[in-house]
Amino acid sequence: MLATDAPPPSAPYARVKQHLKAGLAAGRWPAGALMPSEAELVAEFGVSRMTVNRALRELQTEGLVQRTQGVGTFAAPLHKVSSTLTLRDLHDEITSRGHRHHALVHLQRAEPADAALAAQLGVAVGSEVFHTLIVHHDNGLPLQCEDRYVNPACAPGYLAADFTRTTPTQQLFDTTALWRAQYAIEAGRPTAQEAALLGIAEAEPCLIVVRRTFTREAPITIARLVHPGQRYSLHGEFQP
After folding, report:
1. Are 1 and 89 in contact (CB under 8 A)?
2. Which of 57, 59, 145, 203 lies at a CB distance of 3.0 to 4.6 Å from 226, suitable for a disulfide?
3. What is the CATH number of the domain that holds 41?
């Protein structure tokens, strides 16, 4: 979910990212140099533009490149430091540790949006939005309760996905043009429902992340991610 670790090299976007990262480390593109365009990378790796965009977006988040709309991607100055959290799929995070991930889907349906939710997703009050409630497990232990609402205009096929085989994060990575994300992170207590789903006491402290993502034009999703404090920690690093 939230980490700065390298992605699994088997993922198509990860191959593109690693190629560019290795070139930057080797000095192939010095600071300020124009890097290959999205179209060039699509042709070179035989992947979609969305896949290339994700690789470049993660490099930008890590402070390794700078992107200017309509101009291109440039190698960032070496003194650049990024304090932005990387948006990462929880399945990748768990399996990268050599652990087994599985998910239990407790809810997967369309619901009418109330006023507060409609404002968050940029839809009309009473219009249908997609709702999933999923508990992710790490080696059989509940690690995250994910309560997510999705704007159907951005991801019309969302409810057709099998979330025992893929994650909402991966599904949205693959089917939407993610542009930016907002995070709110706090320590707090779970709701009674969240505590029951995670198998913890209602008084147990949790790490709670509320995350909202956007295309250039509209909100995609808002998710509340609740992690038992004793089972989860947030890590990051930077290099000057």
Report:
1. yes
2. 145
3. 1.10.10.10
